[in-house]
Amino acid sequence: MAKGLTAGELRLEDEDTLVQKLKEAKEELFNLRFQAATGQLESHGRLRAVRREIARIYTVMRERELGIVTVEKESSDG
User: Fold this and answer.
1) pLDDT, tens digit, for every residue of 22-61?
2) Is the CB of residue 50 less than 8 Å from the CB of residue 33?
């Protein structure tokens, strides 16, 4: 899973790619939680980063669902 994806980068992806990235992020979050529960987690900050990444993906998907126009779309159209 790519680290540090911004909302702008995610807006450039197609729907299938977003779904795939969401699935990968959720799997990573599950693994991190499992490691935390067993005391094997080395980077607790990664938990927060993955949760935020999932939230960004959901946000971009919801923006598309509602038809919200973003700055990146406006600049690439005109």
Assistant:
1) 999 999 999 999 999 999 999 999 999 999 999 999 999 9
2) no
How far is the CA of 8 from the CAs of 30, 43, 51, in angstroms? 25, 26, 17
Structure-token pair, residue 46? 């990664």
Tokens of 25: 């992020």
4-13, 28-37, 47-56, 68-77: the lowest-pLDDT one: 68-77
- The pTM assigned to this predicted structure is 0.80
Print burial letters for 30-40: b (CB count within 10 Å at least 16), e (below 16): eebeebeeeee
User: Which helix (DSSP H) or strand (DSSP E) does residue 50 occupy?
Assistant: helix 45-66
* The two structure tokens encoding residue 28: 């990573």
Neighbours of 26 (CB within 10 A): 14
